[in-house]
Design goal:
By secondary structure, this protein is mainly α. It contains 11 helices and no strands. The longest helix has 16 residues, at 19-34.
Length: 153
Amino acid sequence: MEALLYLVGLSSYMNPEIEKSRHHLVNELRHKLHTSTVAPKRKELLPDVANITLAPDNSASLVRLAEDSKTAPYILAKLAEHDNHEVRMAVADNDRAPYSAHRSLAQDPHDDVRYRVAENYHIRPDLLRMLMDDENPYVAVRAESTLARIQQA
């Protein structure tokens, strides 16, 4: 069900006209998936979300998806594994990303991704303390200042 809703949401990023009928389509999908005749076949209806979210040719759409505050945490976790660092940076900024995604992004090989994690005020303090020891001095200083601001609040 969530995978189908994700696909509907992703398609609205690619074609804004689809957004108009999105609400109707989502309600229809919910109804069909919850009826007794369709429920046993539910697994057959779900596409392989992992391959869709990690497709390298639609990075701009995936950045917008990763920035969206309504994106499901499990999708953000998949996007945190994307090859494009801009997609990973957008996940680092998203407050709904799960702890596991932020933890892997705090160890990302790309400095800009780690910097984005270090400047996020919704990151747990243990990750900020880890980033304070980062090899990049900009990341380390930013993590320290973010942690100081969190502790002052």
